[in-house]
Write a structure and sequence with these properties.
The chain has about 260 residues and is an alpha+beta fold. The chain contains 13 helices and seven strands.
Amino acid sequence: MATAVFVRSYISKLPEGQIFATRELLTFGKRSAVDKVLQTLTLKGAILRLARGIFVRADVGLETPSLEEIVRAKARAFSKLAVSLGCVVAKKFGLKKSTKNMSPKQKVQHKKNEEVNESCAGRYAIVGATTSFETVHGRVLFKAVAPRKHILAQNKVGRILVALWHLGKSSSVEFEALQSMARLKRPEKKLIKKLAAWTPSWLNQYFLNGTLRADICAPADLDFLRRGSSENRKRSKKEDRKYKMTALSTTSKKVRESIAYYKVA
């Protein structure tokens, strides 16, 4: 009984539209008890199940959270960070992996991977084990990648390297045209040469063909990409502003109506 009260109280105090995970409620009772309460609330239409273990309060006039928001919440529930997958970035730039030098077995596997990718609503890279799950928008794939790829993918410049890495050394890419499509500024063009040292030698070779410069040296580590990502900072600030006000202090009529639901025995 106490578990149900605590879970309902917690959910009612969440800001409007904030996604929450089952993990946040495990201090209120056993997993089986928490799951039972969430199942009851879902059946009553009080909350919306976005994915396994991921929910949002069904406020009046609620807009279904985007796939990106659901993916971030799912990854966060397992202390992971979902970033762009190399094949997704490559496709964005209109680049395809060459099958010319692949063995018959590799071609079969490549075709299978393409079919899996096309059937997914979203594909993301994580550090850990490959997994997939269903969401209200469709199936999402979390693919395990090397830590270097994962960190590089957290930065605009690094994502270009991840895309080239995915294509492989047999692919022929006009790098100047790719830089133009990515709209890289001068400092970013300099940074990509520095980061290339953290990629395989065949990829780094792309950036050694020009004039060598003493002021372009490889960083000692890639932590600055994780800490200094402008996209992550903007996203964090946006979420902080969004979740600063609690639902109990809001004057929104639709939130007050939703809260009233939880106060009914």
